[in-house]
Amino acid sequence: MTPELAALLTRERRRAVALLARQLGLGHLALAEDAVQTATLRALERWPREGVPERPAAWLYRVAQRLAIDELRHTRPHTALPDDAEPEALAAPPADEGRLAGELNDDELALLFAACHPALPPATQVALALRSLLGLELAAIAPLLFSTEAALAQRLARARVTLGGHTLAVPGGAELPPRREAVLSTLALVFHHGQLAAGRQGDAPQGEDPLALCWEAIRLARALAAHPATAAPEADALAALLLLHGARLTGRIDDAGELVPLHGQPRDRWDAGLIRLGLVHLKASQRGTALTRWHLQAGIAAEHAMAPSPEATNWPAIVRYYELLLAHDPSHAPRLGHAIALAEAGEPAEAERALRALLPTVPEALQAHACAALARALSRQGREEEADGWWQRAIEAAGHPAEARLLARVRRSAAGG
């Protein structure tokens, strides 16, 4: 499979799932996903031989629709079936205009907001949105939510039962705010997943660009900030956050394909255009009166983006941002970020106390980062032997060989080797 065909199928699969789920209803979301997956496999068999159809999304949709209708006729003969006519939304799919351009497809927006239904717990809203909109596997979603695959599968099964009678529609007015936070969380996790996959090249399917998910998350965040039904200061704040992190992606991987820590990234490799665009969104986010966690995270990202060098980073300002963030979100990730900032701001003993309190309960996905942070805090206090032991624990806890190699290099650098 060529990279071009992989990217095409990834993009069109999302549109087909959104449209089919809209017709069948969220109670049949699993059926829509399975039908589109089967249609995608048929495309992989036929398109390389017969050529890509003029309207690939329409092709996938029609094949998936017939599969879904056949399944419903067989298993639920009394279920009302959708009209077999081709949806107008597939008649003229919008053309791509670059990685950050293009109009948001209304059906994707509808599916995202419908999946983030307030009848579900917040974490379930996010899990369902990740599964339905982007087709992420449970193995990829579970670590993002600090869950297990089995627990996540049960959660999603209950969600589909709960939402069985609901149809897809973009909520408006008073219906929108209860869903917005989960939508923003979903997009942030989509970006994070893409960022992780980029540093774990072996995890990405052959020919698929792992950074495509990062660009898609940025595209959707910017579209949400611009869409009349979803525009809000926090949407601009999220767009700023993702753009500012996206600007650093070009410096995160070296020419050998290895991960580079933030302090070692050549800043002339960062994307200055994305930084400027992120700062524009950050300014737009200040039109509101509420200070959200997205504003604070974007502020932290802006401090990193605007610092001309690692040494010039305003770590005391970042500490203050984290202190405010913890009032909104006292979960493990912000607590870890706060401790790291304390050590960098010249308070390693305070950072050590925070990390030792955090480590007994930190999720597995953050274990390596927490151990490495404690190693750095100890090293800054001159306790190199203790620090080396925590570096070893960090390497052993790494979730992927690429991350273990990064930690080993940072360990050697800290030891002066």
Describe this structure in words.
This protein is mostly helical. Among the domains are: 1-83; 105-163, no CATH class. It contains 19 helices and no strands. It has helices at 3-24, 29-50, 56-75, 106-115, 122-134, 138-144, 149-162, 177-199, 212-226, 233-247, 249-252, 272-285, 293-306, 315-328, 332-344, 348-358, 364-379, 384-397, 401-414. The chain is globular. The two termini are 43 Å apart. Residues 84-105 and 202-207 have low confidence and may be disordered. Residues 12-75 form the RNA polymerase sigma-70 region domain. Residues 179-285 form the DUF6596 domain. Pfam families: DUF6596, Sigma70_r2. One of its GO terms (molecular function) is DNA-binding transcription factor activity.
Q: In angstroms, what is the radius of gyration?
A: 23 Å
Beta strand %? under 5%
Helix content: 55-70%
- The helix/strand class is mainly alpha
Q: The biggest beta sheet, please?
A: none
Approximate shape: globular
Low-confidence stretches: 84-105, 202-207
Average pLDDT for all residues = 84
Secondary-structure element order, as H and E? HHHHHHHHHHHHHHHHHHH
Report the end-to-end length measured between terminal Cα atoms: 43 Å
Give the strand tally: 0
H/I helix tally: 19
Brief overview, please?
The chain has about 425 residues and is mainly α. The chain has helices at about 5-25, 30-50, 55-75, 105-115, 120-135, 140-145, 150-160, 175-200, 210-225, 235-245, 250, 270-285, 295-305, 315-330, 330-345, 350-360, 365-380, 385-395, 400-415. It is globular, with a radius of gyration of 23 Å.
